[in-house]
């Protein structure tokens, strides 16, 4: 073979090798971009609160849905809702959907069970704090407002711990024609638990979304052995751990049924919602649960002061954030709890008068925004 031909072939082979090298580099870059985009989309999906139907539809008596329990897993592993015919309270925890019926008896919901309303997310805690002993539900909610001050996004809340007392409810199963929820809930089964280990599953919804979901805090509870659960009315905490997942994205799927299309969702159902949330019947039964059944034992931090349950109606208080350990949160406060009232000592209860006197002895100024209880 002539020398010139061999040189020409060698040059062509070098060009081909360079082309393949550039092609493989481009392919690797494209693969990296696609993988990064898929990872970003996956992370975004986990940071989304998914909802089927609306709370106003439920208040109006729409207890028939077309979504199945088996479809929930694609949208979240943590949340709450209910079932068709209002057949129990739904608790979604660790990817399992539980159904709490009369008296709180709880079972795993079959995959084909239909639901008219559900709110779920993939739970990834942004913040963690100890649960103070003695907190009732009002005190817990006030504490959560300090831990998660952004009221304009969803917050998913998980509280694992031991509770001295809980008051729960489950609704009665309904048959057609359905009555509005405010009427149905008057027949609810209310019961109490004493000395029980378990988990509060909660969602805090911004007030401006009140027609879509329960505005403010909404908690369900399930015991550590997953045998008992329901909607939460009252608690008295012993010890535990609070975890909060800030969820800034929101997706809702609306039912495509004739019943949903026929509903008048333009009217305000705020008063109906208040009646549903505020109904308190006498407990029908009392259950004692062993605290040794805690699945993940937690111990309250000794550095956090014990706070007595809040007595309603509470005085206007100025609460400085406690010294707490947080995850992914650089804004920490080292100020202790502080209650100071600008009024004469004799007008205060004994424990408040003593605190006031200590503040005065230390020459601390009164908080001008507080008032006497």
Could you describe the 3D structure shown?
Helix content is 25%, strand content 28%. With 373 residues, it is α+β, with helices and mostly antiparallel strands. A hairpin with a 2-residue loop joins strand 4 and strand 5 (96-100). The radius of gyration is 27 Å and the shape is elongated.
What sequence of helices (H) and strands (E) makes up the elements? Answer: HEHEHEEEEEEEHEHEEEEHHEH
Helix content, binned percent: 25-40%
Strand order of the largest sheet: 6-5-4-3-8-1-14
CATH class of the domain at 49-293: Alpha Beta
* Number of alpha- plus pi-helical segments: 8
Topology:
Layout: H1 3-46, E1 48-52, H2 55-59, E2 67-68, H3 69-72, E3 78-82, E4 89-93, E5 96-100, E6 106-108, E7 114-115, E8 117-121, E9 127-131, H4 137-147, E10 154-170, H5 181-184, E11 189-205, E12 216-223, E13 229-247, E14 249-253, H6 258-262, H7 270-278, E15 286-288, H8 350-361
Parallel strand pairs: 1-14, 11-15
Antiparallel strand pairs: 1-8, 2-7, 3-4, 3-8, 4-5, 5-6, 9-13, 10-11, 10-13, 11-12, 12-13
Task: Give a summary of the structure in a few sentences.
This protein is α+β, with helices and mostly antiparallel strands and 373 residues long. It has helices spanning 3-46, 55-59, 69-72, 137-147, 181-184, 258-262, 270-278, 350-361, and strands spanning 48-52, 67-68, 78-82, 89-93, 96-100, 106-108, 114-115, 117-121, 127-131, 154-170, 189-205, 216-223, 229-247, 249-253, 286-288. The protein starts with a helix and ends in a 12-residue tail after the last helix.
């Amino acid at each position: 073979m002539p020398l010139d031909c061999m040189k020409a072939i060698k040059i062509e082979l070098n060009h081909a090798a360079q082309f393949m090298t550039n092609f493989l580099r481009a392919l690797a870059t494209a693969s990296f971009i696609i993988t990064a985009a898929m990872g970003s989309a996956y992370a975004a999906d986990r940071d989304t609160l998914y909802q089927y139907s609306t709370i106003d539809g439920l208040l109006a008596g729409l207890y028939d849905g077309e979504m199945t329990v088996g479809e929930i897993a694609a949208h979240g592993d943590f949340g709450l809702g209910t079932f068709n015919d209002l057949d129990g309270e739904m608790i979604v925890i660790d990817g399992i959907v539980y159904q709490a019926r009369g008296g709180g008896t709880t079972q795993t919901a079959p995959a084909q069970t239909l639901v008219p309303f559900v709110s779920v997310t993939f739970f990834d805690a942004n913040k963690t704090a100890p649960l103070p002993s003695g907190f009732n539900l009002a005190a817990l909610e006030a504490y959560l407002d300090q831990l998660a001050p952004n009221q304009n996004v969803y917050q998913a809340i998980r509280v694992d711990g031991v509770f001295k007392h809980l008051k729960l409810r489950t609704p009665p199963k309904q048959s057609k024609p359905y009555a509005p929820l405010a009427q149905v809930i008057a027949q609810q089964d209310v019961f109490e638990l004493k000395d029980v280990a378990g988990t509060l599953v909660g969602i805090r919804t911004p007030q401006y979304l009140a027609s879509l979901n329960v505005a403010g805090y909404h908690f369900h509870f399930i015991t550590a052995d997953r045998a008992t659960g329901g909607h939460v009315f009252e608690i008295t905490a012993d010890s535990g751990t609070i975890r909060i997942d800030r969820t800034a994205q929101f997706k809702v799927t609306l039912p495509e049924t004739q019943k949903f299309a026929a509903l008048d969702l333009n009217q305000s159902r705020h008063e109906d919602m208040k009646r549903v949330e505020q109904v308190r019947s006498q407990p029908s039964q009392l259950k004692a649960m062993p605290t040794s059944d805690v699945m993940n034992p937690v111990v309250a931090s000794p550095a956090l002061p014990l706070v007595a349950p809040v007595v309603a109606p509470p005085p206007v208080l100025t609460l400085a954030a406690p010294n707490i350990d947080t995850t992914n949160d650089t804004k920490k406060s080292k100020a202790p709890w502080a209650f100071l009232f600008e009024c004469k000592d004799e007008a205060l209860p004994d424990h408040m008068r003593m605190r006031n006197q200590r503040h005065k002895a230390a020459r601390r100024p009164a908080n001008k925004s507080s008032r006497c209880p």
